[in-house]
Amino acid sequence: MVRSSKRVANRGHKKKKAEGDSSSSSAAEKAAPKIQDAQLAQIAKFGLPSGLSSLADADDFTARWLECLAEGRQWGGASYGGRGVQVHNSGDVIIDNVTLCYVGKTGSTYLLENAKVQFLKGHCYGLIGVNGAGKTTLLRRLASFTLPGTPLHLKYAYVAQELTPPPEEEALTTLDYTVAADVERALLMKEDADLNEKLTSGADMTDEEVERVTEVVEQLDAIGADQAEDRARAVLKGLGFPERLIDAPVKHLSGG
Question: Where is the sequence biased in composition, kind Basic residues (predicted)?
Answer without folding.
Answer: 1-17
